[in-house]
Each structure stands twice: as structure tokens, then as C-alpha cells.
């Protein structure tokens, strides 16, 4: 196990290098010159040069790339070009709000999807199965934007069950009051595709010989489904959840924007709008790193879920 | 069970992370604290960037800065066009030496808000003195600050540029060095000597970013001055979560100020004056600002009274406004009010007037009759009414003059000599030899292929401009190619005179015509003169106008300059946008500021009655 982990950790290095190179090339060749954005409405070439010098974008590419690599190694990405706020502070203060929304969203969404998937898999071919699958197909076809706008209008504005938007100071208020509707939206969005996906995982297991054997031995249906099928289907479900995690962190920007949640996704969008390279660099590297770590964690979890799995 | 343990661990980690947020100082409460007194809740549609006056240039940061810092002069709250009045200065500046020397006397007994930066002083605060303005102005030219508004002082104050040059060489700006043109002969007197006569420099002194900062605070907070504004204004920053929440509270040590303004001859102004005259300022104890990027969220939050003012809902205007620009009866019936004004801005289509773009000939550039005819034809073919009706959804007025309403020098009666007339535009092109080829599109008079390039950014709004441009030019048989680029690149290309044709917007920095007419001044090519327009007739008049105060003579020069620009057709003026501000029934005293300054200190909140 230790050797496996060391080997996997070593594989992080070339992957991260690839990410660094890709981000660097994309920003320098596609991104605009930030000096012109920061210079304000009336700037002369001398001022532009002064800004470029201070940002370090006047340096040769290899020097800039080396600085980027040093930043990845030290974890110090400097300050935001737009606001002068330390990038580390940006992440430290935006991570909490993001996780306050995303984790309940992920947990509730995953549990609900699993229950529904298990139910429809058990009743495969029945009217319930077909109705839920049709509902899932329709639900999956609707854009997240529609979910947000409709839920915000109906549940917050018309019914007044939740605030339209906002964010508070203490964790409980944020979780109960301000996160409830965004979590509901997130769950509604993920429910349809996840249910369909997990249903296939369960169906794969239901048709296995060991299930038939368990039933032949007289085991109750609840034990067959709740223990044997669920446990064996857990491996692909864990993989799916783990892979989603890092992308969710930066990918929930629409929810964060509409509900004014000061999270990472919203910050990423702002950074892109402002050509704020230090923040873009940091978020890309962090998301890549998180993806690698969660993949590794998923592999380790396989072993915990199913002792037959050998990590080599 | 293992999975449950993993989820529990993750949830615990999230809880800890979220609790970490609570521990960090820059976070904000969600609102209604009964002890807070009168609370005004509003939204910004774009995130601020910070509150160090020399480091920011965005509108929303400027609003907060204007509430925290004090400039020497300000503008009357109600008077239009904007009228200067003293703020920290006891009177308007004494202008001597033929417009070259400005002398101001400061009020005594004005203090910076208490801050740890003033440790050792009684109550951790210090009195504002003239040397603070000397320091604050110097900061604009410190290369380390890379101030977007350095141009306000560049080349204007005797000796200041020399100091900036020395700083560029040494890498350190010497704030202790004496600058001949920037003196504080005593604690409360500030004397500014300009390199040349400028009767309009008072507008710079009234600019909201030219407020006084304390050197102790700037040095104490180092690179984090954007998050630690320490000023003398009516409000101070209580809590701050960047790009999300800004909470201001009344400065407990604010100097005695009482509401007084000069109302215009209209019912709205008179009503404000009646309700506010003589009140101690500020009346509002706390201002809570939420950054809400999405118009839908802002609109719903306003309707549910989660916010008290909504500054701009251009996209959603048809939802709450009638076609004739009035608030729909269902909202008016709830007591909601709408304040409609025209922003101090112009939007224009500029044509690159240089003969070459890079090393290639520019079919639109030059001042020969056929080139001017082509520019004129494009200007006559472009359908401004469609721009206002379709793209702006009726939320703009036609701009005829380079100086917008509310700005000194504006001419409401002026009519642009270039009218929308595609038929005449076609005739003009025919006359000057732009013949149509077999495909229906025109060639250049010498028979060369004619194609114009229009530049825009890759946004939904700009796509609509692209379509309108294409449709307009198709009507006169001129082929147009749409080029998309990122905003920063477009600025760069404009500064390098490499854009053939593009829409541009200029929002007033200060309400004086000079701020707009400089956009066409030849030497400003490479900076703000995106048309790269060089006309000796225009430039001579502009230089003369700079030495004049706001007057009938200066206005005459502006009219002549505008006509000259039209003759050469460097621009087509299109529109200025309306700002529709929605107010809850209990919000008192709001009038859109004549400049980019916060109105909160002049307003009040009445009793909130249930709907």
C-alpha cells in the first residue's frame, strides 16, 4: 500500500507540470495584456511598461514560467493583480462558503440518488421505473440556469420560504438560511443524471450470480439489496462522487453568482473577467491537485469498500 | 460504514473550514440589527476592487471611497449642471497667477477615524491637515502605486513629475521631498502651483478619489491598503468581505455637517429639499452593500424588500417600466419610486482617421474628400434608433453633442449635422466613385477591394452591435468584417491606432466638458484619442479652451470643435444611457449624484410600513 501511494504521488509531478505548461501557454497566447486593463482610462506607454514591469509580464517567457513553477512548489501565488488581495487569503476566505453549500449538496444529492436508483433498479421495467426514468431524462435536459431561475422565483420570491440571496457571518445561519435553496437547486440538478447512472450500477450488480445465490439461500430482499448490491455498486459510485468533488468546487459558479455566495466558483469567474492571472493560476493548480488527490483517495476507498481489491 | 465515516470526516472538514471564515475579520452580518439604527441596503452589480483611492478606477469602489474619504471640494447635491462647493476647504479655491496658483484653507477640527495606525495619539486618531493632501496627491504619481488616475496630476503640478521621474530611477518615491508646486505653508493652508493656467483644476480637487489619506495608515497597512481605508468622511468601513459584502457605519467622530443644497426648478428637487434641509448628516447609520452579479437576483431581492435601492436593471427595464419610461402602475401602487436620469457619458462610434493601420492602407483613414465621404456615409447609414430601441431596449437617449447632459459645456439645443439617411449615403458613395461590383458590394474609387473592419468584444451585447453594423453597412453596399477580441486587447489595439472602427464609451471623471473634448485632441493619440484624430483646427481651439473657465466663450469653442469633428467625421455620436434607480417607499432624499459619488450621506430612511 505504501509503495503504491508513493508511486501515485510521484505521478502527480509530471501531471502538474503538464497543467502548469498548459495554463501558462493559454494565458500568454490567448489572454489579453493585463497592463491595459489595470492602467485605467488614460494611460501612456510608459505607464503600461511600469505596470508590466511590476507584474513581471515584461520578463522572458522562461523566467515567467520558472516563477510559476516556484509558486506551485511554495504554494505562494502572490497577490491578485486586480485587488492586491493575497491569493492565499482569497482561497482561505472563499473555501468555507463554497464547502458550506457544496458538501450538503453532494451528500444529500448522492444519498437521494442512491435511494431512488436502488428503488427503480429493484423495480426494473415497472411503471415506477419507467416514470422515473422519463422524469430523469426530462430533468437532465433542462439547463441548470432554468432550475436556478425557477427555484429562486418560486421558492424564494413567490413562496418566501428562503431569502432570494445573501450570505451571513455565522456558519449555522449560512447553512440553514442561505444555503438551503442553493442546495435544493444543486440536488435537483444532480438528481436526474445521478439516478440514471447509479441505476445502471445497481442493475449490473443485481444480475450477478452472487445475488441469485443470496436469494437462493433465503436472504431477505432488503438484505440482498441494502447490503450486497449496495456494497458492490459502491465502488463506481465512490469514483463518480470523488471525481465530481474538485470540479464542483470551481464549477458551481452559476449557483454562487445567482445566490451571492462568496465562494471559489464566483471568484474564478471574476478572475477570468479581470484577467487576474495569479488567481487563475492558483485555482487551476489547486483543482488539478485536488483531482489527483481525490482520485487517489477513491482508489484507497475501493480497498476499504471491497477488501478483494488489490492496489498495485 | 466506511463510507459513512468518510462523509462524516468530509462534513467535519467543511464545518471547520466554514468556521474558519467566521474567525477571519472581513466578514459581514446579514443585516437587520435593531441596534444598528437606520440601515440602507443596496447592491452593486459588479464587484469592487478595493478602497485605496490611488489604486482603483472602477465605479463601485469609487462610490465607497467617496463615502469614506473627503476631497477638498465637492458638488452641490441637487444643482444641475454640477456646481462646485467647498467640502473640507472652507471656501472655493483662490485662483491667482492667471489660473496657475490655487490656494485653499482647510477646516479645523476634522479628524481621521480612530485606527490602530494612530497608536500613541489621544483616542487613536489625528487631525486632518494640509500636509495630508500634499501626501495624498503625491501618491498618485508614485510608480509603485501604478495609479489609473495619475493623469489627473501628470504634467500639471510644478516639480511633481520630476519627483516621479527620480522615483522611477531610484525605485523609491521620496514623500519627504519638497515639491515647489505642492505646499502646505501652515497646518490648514494648501497651495498648488500649476505648470500652466488651468481654470478647471477645481474639478480635480473635487474628484472623489482625491480624498485625504493618512500617511500613518498607508504605511501601517502596506500592501493591504485596499482593505483598510482610513478617512475623515461620513462613513467608515465596518466589515468587508471582498467581492461580496461591504458594510459601512457612520463615522462616530464625523464633523458637524448639515443638509443644504440648491434645488432645481422641479417638484422632485423641491420635495427633497423640503424633507432634508437642515438635517444633521449623515442620517443613515449603516450602509450594507451586497455584490449581486445577476439582475434577476437583484430584481427579486428588491421586490421582496431585501434591498432598499436598486441602481441599475437595464436588462429588466421592460418588467417594471412602461414604454414611455414611467414606472408601471402595479409598482407605483406599492409606493415604489423610480428616479430616472441620463448618465454623464457618451457612446460613440469612432473611425480611425490615420491613412495606414500598421503598414497597411486604411480605407477609412485620411482627410481626402473620398475618405471623408466614406466615413460620412458609414455614419449616415448606421441606424442609431435601432441601437436605442433594440439593443438598449429604449433605455438610452440619442447623443448629439460630445458633452453629455449634466456636464458643464453641454449644449441641449445642438443638433448633429450627420443624420441617418442611407439613401443620401448611397448617393454620396456613388458621387465619390465607390462603385458597386457584381456581388453588389462597393469597391474603392481606385477599383481596389473595399472591406471595413469593425471590432467588438465577444459578449452577447456586442454581438447585437455586430449585427446592427452589418445590417447598416449592407444597406449602402459596404462590406464589413467583424473582428472579436478580448477587452484588454481591444484597449491595447486602440492605443496603438490599430482599430479601424469600434464603439466606445466615455464616462465622466468629473463634470466638465474638457473631460470629453480631450478625447479628440491630437496629442492624446495613443491614450484616449482612439480615432487617432489630428486636426490642427480642432487642436488649436482645444488648447485655447483649456486656458478658459467654464464660460460662453469656451462653449463657443466647443461648438466649433464639434462642427470640425463632424466635418472630418472622426466619430458618430450615438447615445447616452438612462439610469433607472428604484427606491422603496421609505427611502428619502435620493437624487443621482452628478458625479460618481455616493448619495447615502445626503439621504434618510423613513418608517418601514408593512405592505
Structure notes:
The complex is a heterodimer of chains A (312) and B (611). Chain A has 312 residues and is mainly alpha-helical. Chain A has helices at 2-29, 34-38, 45-55, 61-74, 87-122, 127-141, 144-158, 171-178, 180-206, 209-216, 221-251, 253-258, 264-273, 277-305. The N and C termini of chain A lie close together (8 Å). Chain B has 18 helices and 22 strands. Chain B starts with a helix and ends in a 6-residue tail after the last strand. Residues 1-33 of chain B have low confidence and may be disordered. Classes of the chains: A mainly alpha (312), B alpha+beta (611). At the A-B interface, helix 2, helix 3, helix 5, helix 7 and helix 8 of A face helix 1, helix 8 and helix 15 of B.
Descriptive labels:
heterodimer, A: 312 residues, mainly alpha, 78% helix, globular, B: 611 residues, alpha+beta, Dipeptide-binding Protein, domain 3, six-stranded antiparallel beta sheet, four-stranded mixed beta sheet
* Most extensive interface: A-B, 68 and 73 residues
CATH superfamily caption of the domain at 345-578 in chain B: Dipeptide-binding Protein, Domain 3
What overall geometry of chain A do the principal axes of the alpha carbons give?
Answer: globular
**Which structural class do you get from the secondary structure elements of chain B?**
alpha+beta
Number of helices of chain B: 18
Which architecture of the domain at 345-578 in chain B would the CATH scheme give at its second level?
Roll
Question: Main β-sheet of chain B, in a few words?
Answer: 6 strands, antiparallel
How much beta of chain A, percentage-wise?
under 5%
Oligomeric form: heterodimer
Count of discrete alpha- or pi-helical segments spanning 4 or more residues of chain A: 14
Overall residue-averaged pLDDT value of chain B: 91
What is the averaged pLDDT score of chain A? 88
Shape of chain B: globular
Amino acid at each position: 500500500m505504501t509503495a503504491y501511494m508513493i508511486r501515485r504521488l510521484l505521478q502527480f509531478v509530471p501531471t502538474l507540470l503538464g497543467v502548469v505548461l498548459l495554463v501558462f501557454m493559454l494565458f500568454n497566447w490567448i489572454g489579453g495584456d493585463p497592463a491595459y486593463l489595470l492602467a485605467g482610462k488614460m494611460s501612456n506607454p510608459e505607464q503600461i511598461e511600469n505596470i508590466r514591469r511590476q507584474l513581471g509580464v515584461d520578463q522572458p517567457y522562461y523566467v515567467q514560467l520558472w516563477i510559476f513553477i516556484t509558486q506551485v512548489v511554495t504554494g505562494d501565488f502572490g497577490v491578485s493583480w486586480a485587488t492586491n488581495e493575497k491569493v492565499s487569503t482569497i482561497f482561505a476566505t472563499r473555501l468555507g462558503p463554497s464547502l458550506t453549500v457544496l458538501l450538503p449538496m453532494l451528500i444529500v444529492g448522492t444519498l437521494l440518488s442512491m435511494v431512488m436508483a436502488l428503488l427503480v433498479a429493484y423495480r426494473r421495467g415497472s411503471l415506477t421505473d419507467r416514470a422515473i426514468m422519463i422524469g430523469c431524462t426530462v430533468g437532465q435536459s433542462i439547463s441548470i440556469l432554468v432550475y436556478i431561475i425557477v427555484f429562486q422565483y418560486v421558492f424564494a420570491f413567490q413562496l418566501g420560504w428562503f431569502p432570494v440571496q445573501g450570505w451571513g457571518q455565522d456558519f449555522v445561519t449560512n447553512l440553514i438560511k442561505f444555503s438551503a435553496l442553493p442546495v435544493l437547486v444543486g440536488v435537483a440538478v444532480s438528481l436526474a443524471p445521478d439516478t440514471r447512472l447509479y441505476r445502471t450500477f445497481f442493475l449490473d450488480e443485481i444480475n450477478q450470480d452472487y445475488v441469485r445465490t443470496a436469494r437462493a439461500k433465503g436472504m431477505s430482499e432488503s438484505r440482498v439489496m441494502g447490503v450486497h448490491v449496495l456494497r458492490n455498486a459502491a465502488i463506481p459510485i465512490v469514483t463518480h462522487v470523488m471525481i465530481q468533488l474538485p470540479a464542483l468546487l470551481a464549477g458551481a459558479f452559476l449557483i454562487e453568482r445567482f445566490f451571492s455566495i462568496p465562494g471559489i466558483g464566483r471568484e474564478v469567474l471574476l478572475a477570468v473577467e479581470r484577467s487576474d492571472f495569479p488567481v487563475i493560476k492558483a485555482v487551476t493548480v489547486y483543482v488539478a491537485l485536488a483531482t489527483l488527490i481525490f482520485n487517489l483517495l477513491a482508489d484507497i476507498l475501493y480497498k476499504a469498500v471491497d477488501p478483494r481489491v488489490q492496489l498495485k | 460504514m466506511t463510507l459513512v465515516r468518510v462523509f462524516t470526516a468530509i462534513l467535519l472538514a467543511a464545518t471547520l473550514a466554514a468556521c474558519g471564515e467566521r474567525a477571519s475579520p472581513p466578514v459581514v452580518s446579514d443585516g437587520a440589527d435593531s441596534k444598528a439604527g437606520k440601515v440602507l441596503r443596496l447592491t452593486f452589480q459588479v464587484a469592487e476592487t478595493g478602497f485605496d483611492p490611488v489604486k482603483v478606477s472602477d465605479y463601485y469602489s469609487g462610490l465607497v471611497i467617496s463615502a469614506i474619504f473627503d476631497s477638498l471640494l465637492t458638488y452641490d447635491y441637487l444643482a444641475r449642471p454640477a456646481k462646485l462647493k467647498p467640502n473640507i476647504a472652507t471656501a472655493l479655491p483662490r485662483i491667482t497667477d492667471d489660473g496657475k496658483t490655487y490656494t485653499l484653507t482647510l477646516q479645523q477640527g476634522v479628524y481621521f477615524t480612530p485606527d490602530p495606525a494612530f497608536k500613541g495619539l489621544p483616542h487613536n486618531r489625528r487631525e486632518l491637515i494640509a500636509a495630508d493632501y500634499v501626501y495624498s496627491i503625491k501618491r498618485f504619481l508614485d510608480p509603485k502605486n501604478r495609479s489609473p488616475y495619475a493623469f489627473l496630476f501628470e504634467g500639471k503640478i510644478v516639480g511633481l513629475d520630476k519627483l516621479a521621474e527620480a522615483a522611477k530611477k531610484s525605485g523609491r518615491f521620496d514623500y519627504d521631498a519638497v515639491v515647489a508646486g505642492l505646499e502646505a505653508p501652515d497646518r490648514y493652508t494648501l497651495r498648488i502651483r500649476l505648470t500652466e493656467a488651468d481654470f478647471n483644476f477645481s474639478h480635480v480637487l473635487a474628484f472623489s478619489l482625491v480624498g485625504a489619506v493618512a500617511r500613518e495608515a498607508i504605511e501601517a497597512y502596506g500592501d493591504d491598503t485596499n482593505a483598510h481605508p482610513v478617512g475623515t468622511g461620513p462613513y467608515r468601513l465596518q466589515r468587508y468581505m471582498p467581492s461580496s459584502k461591504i458594510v459601512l457605519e457612520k463615522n462616530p467622530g464625523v464633523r458637524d455637517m448639515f443638509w443644504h443644497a440648491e434645488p432645481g426648478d422641479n417638484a422632485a428637487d423641491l420635495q427633497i429639499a423640503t424633507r432634508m434641509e437642515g438635517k444633521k448628516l449623515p442620517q443613515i447609520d449603516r450602509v450594507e452593500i451586497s455584490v449581486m452579479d445577476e439582475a434577476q437576483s437583484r430584481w427579486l431581492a428588491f421586490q421582496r424588500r431585501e434591498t432598499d435601492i436598486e441602481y441599475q436593471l437595464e436588462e429588466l427595464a421592460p418588467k417594471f417600466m412602461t414604454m414611455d419610461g414611467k414606472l408601471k402602475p402595479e409598482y407605483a401602487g406599492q409606493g415604489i419610486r423610480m428616479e430616472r436620469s441620463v448618465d454623464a457619458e457618451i457612446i460613440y462610434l469612432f473611425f480611425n482617421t490615420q491613412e495606414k493601420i500598421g503598414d497597411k492602407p486604411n480605407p477609412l483613414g485620411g482627410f481626402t474628400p473620398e475618405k471623408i465621404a466614406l466615413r460620412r456615409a458609414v455614419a449616415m447609414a448606421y441606424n442609431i434608433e435601432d441601437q436605442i430601441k433594440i439593443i438598449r431596449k429604449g433605455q438610452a437617449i440619442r447623443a448629439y453633442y460630445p458633452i453629455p447632459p449634466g456636464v458643464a459645456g453641454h449644449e441641449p439645443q445642438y443638433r448633429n449635422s450627420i443624420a441617418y439617411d442611407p439613401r443620401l449615403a448611397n448617393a454620396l458613395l456613388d458621387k465619390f466613385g465607390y462603385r458597386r461590383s457584381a456581388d453588389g458590394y462597393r469597391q474603392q474609387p481606385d477599383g481596389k477591394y473595399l472591406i471595413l473592419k469593425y471590432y467588438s468584444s465577444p459578449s452577447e451585447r456586442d454581438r447585437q452591435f455586430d449585427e446592427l453594423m452589418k445590417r447598416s453597412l449592407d444597406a449602402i453596399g459596404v462590406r464589413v468584417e467583424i473582428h472579436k477580441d478580448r477587452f484588454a486587447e481591444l484597449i491595447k489595439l486602440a492605443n496603438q491606432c490599430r482599430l479601424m472602427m469600434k464603439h466606445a464609451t466615455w464616462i465622466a471623471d468629473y463634470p466638465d466638458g474638457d473631460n470629453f473634448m480631450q478625447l479628440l485632441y491630437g496629442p492624446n493619440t495613443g491614450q484616449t484619442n482612439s480615432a487617432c484624430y489630428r486636426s490642427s483646427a480642432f487642436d488649436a481651439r482645444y488648447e485655447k479652451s483649456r486656458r478658459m473657465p467654464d464660460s460662453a466663450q469656451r462653449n463657443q469653442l466647443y461648438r466649433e470643435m464639434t462642427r470640425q469633428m463632424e466635418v472630418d467625421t472622426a466619430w458618430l455620436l450615438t447615445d447616452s444611457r438612462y439610469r433607472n434607480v428604484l427606491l422603496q417607499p421609505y427611502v428619502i432624499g435620493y437624487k443621482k449624484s452628478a458625479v460618481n459619488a455616493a448619495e447615502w450621506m445626503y439621504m434618510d430612511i423613513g418608517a418601514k410600513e408593512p405592505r
